Model the fold of this input.
Amino acid sequence: MAYELYYWDGIPGRGEFVRLALEEAGAKYLDVVRTSHGMSAMMEYLRGKHGYLCTPFAPPFLKDGDIIVSHVANILHYLGPKLNLVPKDEKYRIFAHGLQLTIADFVMEAHDTHHPISTDDYYEDQKDEAKARTEAFLKNRVPKFMGYFDRIIEGNPASGGYAIGGALSYVDLSLFHVSEGLAYAFPRAMKNFDSSFPRVARLRDMVRDRPNLNAYLKSDRRLAFNQSGIFRHYPELDQDPGRTGIR
Amino acid sequence: MAYELYYWDGIPGRGEFVRLALEEAGAKYLDVVRTSHGMSAMMEYLRGKHGYLCTPFAPPFLKDGDIIVSHVANILHYLGPKLNLVPKDEKYRIFAHGLQLTIADFVMEAHDTHHPISTDDYYEDQKDEAKARTEAFLKNRVPKFMGYFDRIIEGNPASGGYAIGGALSYVDLSLFHVSEGLAYAFPRAMKNFDSSFPRVARLRDMVRDRPNLNAYLKSDRRLAFNQSGIFRHYPELDQDPGRTGIR
Done:
């Protein structure tokens, strides 16, 4: 039976981290909200029509038979062994999950660069605060998080340039997406991304060149970054590299 | 062998969610940083001295033998079955983990009420923005998250008033802590917390009255809320209930 992914249509958003895993593995899945009546099907779950174990707080969530899994990191922790995208050993699975949760925190911080005050209001209503938050994000937070992941890849005793062990994992796919998102949102600030975080950059390129991923990226299943997602390009928020911590 | 919890001393912070689980279960554990040389022991892990699988991004992390588990939700997912604080059935474990990740998101939002611009700067340098963010938090976000948890408890077919099944889980302990944190930080705004979220309030009281928890709360192992943690009481951020969504 095919997996069912429930996520808003029109943006890559948090759903993209799950799509990348399913696509890389060649798994059968339905991107439910992009089918007819998909939106109302998703809303039924969110409104609790399918019972309390099947009432997630928010998308994305994954349906596998009668199991509903919510939150990106939970979904990837669940799918990892099934899609062969994480080592089977418990110690590695736990480590991978910790890395993915660190990525989740970073994604929330990336989102809050354009919504530092209220997620229920427009960006235009919190533009000055967004500038201040973005400045701190580019100066301190990107170097802290990306520097960490670069050290993790460097410290991996298995050769190959992956985050975990000697093969591709869902963490690598997520790091690819985060790197692409940063480059889309802040092209000026990320000018020296590759020299600042060479191992993350090399991993990003390795992921992009994988046959399944590459075919997906060229397909119409892949949604482009745009002004409604997590990573948004507002030129007025972007900065010269010299003012950031990515030099 | 005793579990080792690594977390900053001096605040309940994110470490408290783990402490509550260990204390309720009567598990043997060492709150490492509160012992002599504990801080340098923690820093060794963060600096990667124990190998890359044992290099968390940030505290809290748990050591169990040669396994290091980082992030609160990951730790509780790991400890849950061992401490008998989650049903063994996979479907329930996944659901519990999803709820805990929702709590993690809420905790980050609670933190950002006093640090909406930069976590590396002082509250005093972002006071106006903190007021605006807190207003949105109390108006929209607290009702959205706490209303969700209230509906989950209500929808639980097992009687008992718990979030998951018919017995206490780590999610209940975390909801207790979040409720206490909100009451500490925003005593005025939370005046109608109990009537707005009656099931969460009842659960909070049930947890507080459990013998192990109650003994812990009265002990010196319990750190009081203060002005350096997630939940901080700044009177100027608090609001009249009428201006919030908790009425």
